[in-house]
Amino acid sequence: MIVAFSVTPLGVGEEVGEYVADAVRVVRASGLPHRTDAMFTSIEGEWEECMDVVRRAVAAVEARAPRVSLVLKADIREGVTDGLARKVESVERHLS
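The structure corresponding to this sequence follows.
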């Protein structure tokens, strides 16, 4: 599965980069394939391991913020590997 998620601390002011970095550290330490962009972090793996990473990323932000918002979107498709790269490659082929 691929999970795209965004963890946002609330009640900490406008500058939230240091809090988001706490969540991204959890993702990077997980060893799962991942990508982070301006709006979301995407991870790829099995259901249990992806949800565990999301849970721990939220907890990392929650440890420092009084309130946390989580947005999550999942693509659950059995038997697909390297979906993070393959989906982008498919779009790029169509753009060529």
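The CA atoms of residues 59 and 82 lie 27 Å apart.
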